[in-house]
Design brief:
With about 400 residues, the protein is of the alpha/beta class. The chain is about 45% helix and about 15% strand. Strands 2-8-7-6-5-3-4 form a seven-stranded mixed β-sheet, sandwiched between helices. The chain binds pyridoxal-5'-phosphate. Pyridoxal-5'-phosphate binds next to helix 5.
């Protein structure tokens, strides 16, 4: 018998769709994948070389549960350089991806029945992670008309005596929204006043456009820093999703609890990948910039194409590599026996009719939208937008 804990978990929304996509591919049909959540770039060569070096140096054994001291020192240097923040290696725990860092954080702070505020639209896994830790996710819907900005007045109404934490994500997956300093200051003050933690997932930190800058909420005041666990990693910034290195930085006591949990569940993260991650953090900004500029060109193209199409509109994302157009105008419309009643239907319709793979917004608590990732070549984006325009125009 499978445990109730796992039975209550919603499997990743994209899995079913992936099966359909591979079926179509097996039939020789060219599907354009706008569903991917990772850069379409290879890891920069200087980083790969460091991993090779690690194997030859015999860096193939376990490391301390919290990760190599040299990597934790490099992470401290990064926070000092980027945000003027002072951390020491005992305030840092390296994990097998930011996903594990997030799980560790929830496991370390949540007791059964504790509430965690989740502003939505949100990344698919937060809610499941909170439930797995016996917490209660409290969703707060942000408004599309405001560009999905962090509405702290709205969040304030959801704070109760049981509020243990809020999870925020800027730049945001799926909306691409980047939270303003003003809103983050207000949220930080709310957390200090009501004594709850802020888990700040900043995994898309380097992918910012239109001269936006990442505001690391922990840097806003020493009181806010005491309440904040910052989550980050090398996956998105350095095109290293498969290397599985993420990290968390925060109050020593919480980091210790996260490390203890990790020590018993996975020991330590991959050693050569940790060694390579030092190089990523220390010497790879030029590669990030090339990738960022290319993403920006694609972003501008895709927004202009979508906003030129009829009956669909899209707010302008300032970060990450996703756009999230509103497709609700088409609900109730049909073509060729296929009726689109919701965002999952729309994703299925676009896959069947246009052979493009997008993700249903419902997976992110955004039922009026679909998520399109522009982590794909410009040629594929142009072709994919042509196909989407044609497919939408057929819905009557
Ligand atoms: C918002 C967000 N946080 C965390 C992650 C996980 O990153 P990692 O590959 O480091 O586990 C993702 C990956 O899609 C993400 O979109």
């Amino acid at each position: 018998m499978i445990s109730k804990r796992i039975k209550n978990m919603t499997p990743s929304a994209t899995l079913e769709q992936s099966a359909k996509i591979s079926d179509l591919k097996k039939q020789g049909i060219q599907v354009i994948g706008f569903n991917v959540g990772e850069p379409d770039y290879n890891t920069p060569m200087n980083i790969i070389k460091k991993a090779e070096e690690a194997y030859h140096l015999g860096l193939t054994r376990y490391t301390p549960a919290a990760g190599m001291i040299e990597l934790r020192e490099e992470i401290c240097r990064k926070f000092k350089r980027d945000y003027g923040l002072d951390y020491t290696p005992k305030d840092v725990v390296v994990s097998s991806g930011a996903k594990q860092s997030l799980t560790n954080a929830f496991m370390a702070i949540i007791d059964p029945g504790d509430e965690v505020i989740v502003p939505t639209p949100c990344w698919v896994s937060y809610v499941e992670m909170i439930k797995l830790a016996d917490g209660i996710p409290i969703m707060v819907a942000l408004e599309e008309k405001d560009g999905f900005r962090l509405d702290v007045d709205k969040i304030k109404k959801s704070v109760t005596v049981k509020t243990k934490a809020i999870i925020i994500n800027s730049p945001n997956n799926p909306t691409g929204a980047v939270y303003s300093k003003n809103d983050l200051v207000q949220l930080g003050q709310l957390a200090v006043d009501h004594d709850f933690y802020i888990i700040s997932d900043e995994i898309y930190e380097k992918l910012l456009y239109d001269a936006e800058e990442n505001v690391c909420i922990a840097a806003l005041s020493s009181e806010i820093k005491e309440k904040t666990i910052t989550i980050n990693g090398v996956s998105k910034s350095y095109a290293m999703t498969g290397w599985r290195i993420g990290y968390a930085v925060g109050p020593t006591e919480i980091i210790k609890a996260m490390t203890d949990y990790q020590g018993n569940t996975t020991t330590s993260p991959n050693t050569p990948a940790q060694y390579a991650s030092i190089e990523a953090l220390a010497n790879s900004e030029a590669s990030v910039e090339i990738m960022r500029q290319e993403f920006d060109k694609r972003r501008q193209y895709i927004i202009s194409r979508i906003n030129e199409m009829k009956n669909i509109h899209c707010s302008t994302p300032k970060g990450a590599f996703y756009v999230m157009p509103n497709v609700s105008h088409f609900y109730g419309k049909q073509y060729n026996g296929f009726t689109v009643n919701n965002s999952l239907d729309m994703a299925n319709y676009l896959l069947e009719e246009a052979k493009i793979a997008v993700v249903t917004g419902a997976a992110f608590e955004a039922p009026d939208n679909i998520r399109i990732s522009y982590s794909n070549s410009m040629d594929n984006i142009i072709e994919g937008m042509n196909r989407m325009e044609e497919a939408l125009s057929k819905l009557q």
